[in-house]
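Note to self: the last two entries modelled the partners one at a time, which told us nothing about the interface. This time every component goes in together.
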Amino acid sequence: MASVPSKLYSDDVSLLVVLIDTNPFFWGGVNTTNASSSLSFSTFIAHVLSFINSILLLNQLSQVVVIATGVNSCNYIYDSSSQTVTENSENGIIPARSSQILRKLEEFVSADEQLSKDLSQARVFSLLSGSLSLALCYIQRVFRTGSLHPQPRILCLQGSPDGPEQYVAVMNAIFSAQRSMVPIDSCVIGSQHSAFLQQASYITAGVYLKPQHLDGLFQYLSTVFATDLLSRSVLELPKPAGVDFRASCFCHKKTIDMGYICSVCLSIFCKHHKKCSTCGSVFGEAHPEVTSTSDKKRKTPMA
Amino acid sequence: MPQVKIIAKNFMDMVASLPEFKLDQLYDNTFICEAVLRSLPALGKKYVLQLLFIEKPVPAKAIEEWLLSNGVSKHRVAIDRLVQLRVFREIIDRKKDISYLLNTKFQSNLQKYIVKGGVLPGEPMPSSITVRLPTLEELDAYALEQWEVCFLLQLISSSQAERPTNFSSSMMTIFQRGLLSQRDKEAPRLTVHGFQFLLMDTNAQLWYIIREYILNSEVRGVDTADLISFLLELSFHVSGEAYNINTLNEFQRNVIKDLADLGLLKLQQGRKESWFIPTKLVTNLSVTLSDSSSRKQGFVVVETNFRTYAYSASKLHCEILRLFSRVEYQLPNLIVGAITKESLYNAFENGITADQIISFLQQNAHPRVAEKTPSVPENVTDQIRLWEADLNRVEIVSSNFYEEFPSRDVFESACDYARENGGHLWEDSKRMRLIVKAEIHMQMREYLRRQK
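The predicted structure of the combined assembly is written out below.
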């Protein structure tokens, strides 16, 4: 007897936001640099499409949103809720869905490339912060509209390494996901672990996984990342082996082990400054003997 | 007359109860595989997806290793369901270890579905032929009207329906069986189940009727498996699109006509072609969500002074409210009534329980009050329960009365025997009279005979 109308479905209805990394520097170099984990973009997309199909197969109310993470921009690629049965759906819904996603991806990649040409300085990192924010915005909109909403979660499929200059933006997105109880799952398909995503999954109680055999990506996706939030409480899922909690400094965007922290606003710096660039607090003079040993972590004295 | 129990079981229980070979036959159809998969418990779906591309049997122990310690009961439920629906095949090897294998047809169909996609069973007709299709809202309104006004009202009282449906009277009798009791020359009266039926939500009612329809199909010479598979297929059609009738065979066309009378489909005729448009009712048919996601807009406001305001013009709603409240006056869009002790006693006499009334009021609460918790004032729900409890002060136990015992000894030993067997209800030692529960009457008689 459901007397109190809840805003959440009690069933395994999920809203899955998939963030796809389309970084050309990663996908272009993946076949040449490490032969062990060779996964071409087309095979990757084929796995992901099957995964999306299977998520939508599991429950008719489930919803999938795909967001592409480029180098200079990110954009919505696909939204299963706004999808209308196209007129020429002769081959059925799924081929139509796949071709729609592929077409949009192609448009996105070429637009992203165009942006690279226009910008003078070349970027090489994927804009993870941007796509995370887009995903969270979408989820917030779902939260605020409609009487019932599915249980949201975000899945990051990330290949390229972290961009240290996005540290603050990514951390803000992570904390906002934590506040709205949205788990961020991460599947790292690159060669290195991603510190950002390790922290993201750790803080939001999502799953972090770096698959060993990339040719079986679909099996990883369906085994681990297809698990709805309802079943997560009863299933054994991969546990993080270790989380890289290192931060980036605000002044040079370098990943550092030790540094200086503003005692007022907790901004992180790799070098001693006279004034905090974030909150403007004036720091006192550091002791000369400490400034010489620069790798020793210390708090700046009170402003 | 068979006793009809109202259990809002779902479609899949029906499918699961089919004989094995028919079930295997059903899995030839990808849409049925899809519907079955969606009906599974969350964990069951997970297992199927995980094993979808594994072609060897997987030991049960390996599956159990995926679980945390608190998941054992959910795991059992999921596995039982999978085996029951023959999605998992149990294989027991020489060491008596159990392993599971996915049903091969089911597996290959779903593999194909995920990789290549399925094809809709029927193609929507191009909009050039179908001149003007009803909008989704019009369609919903049509479905609701057809269901409530035409069908339900006719079900309750055949005289009240303004527009009779085309159901043959024998069909109607099947639906009414158990819901109405027909005495000679008297107006049919609703039975206990009938009252309960009216208070259920639309999906449960629909399912009850469809179940009766399916159960009766064999009498009409229709293959149950065919009917189930066709109904499931229909539930995958897109609501609001038009589908050509000419693609169906004769049996399916007959079914379609029946379903249109229930409001599951809308039939339309063009100049040359005719087509059917599925409504929300039919697309919800295979849905088995635990909370009805298709929750309707409520209309009842209950105040703390036991007055009810129902914002509805529907005759059916008025009839339902009349079941347990005193309708005081009716305005064009408002029914005002009061829940009184007398009106509730009427309802209880008819076999409606307090919980059913309360859940009806809660489920149909007007959006304004539905936001509040509780949506029905607590003093009202408490009072309804108290009034029900009042009626149950007297408990009826069938029993036997013994007297004229030959001696006091026999009487006392009989009392002791009855007490030992938990059947002692009352004794009067002065006049040697004893009342014992009927269920141990035979034992008592045996015992007394031995005493002689």
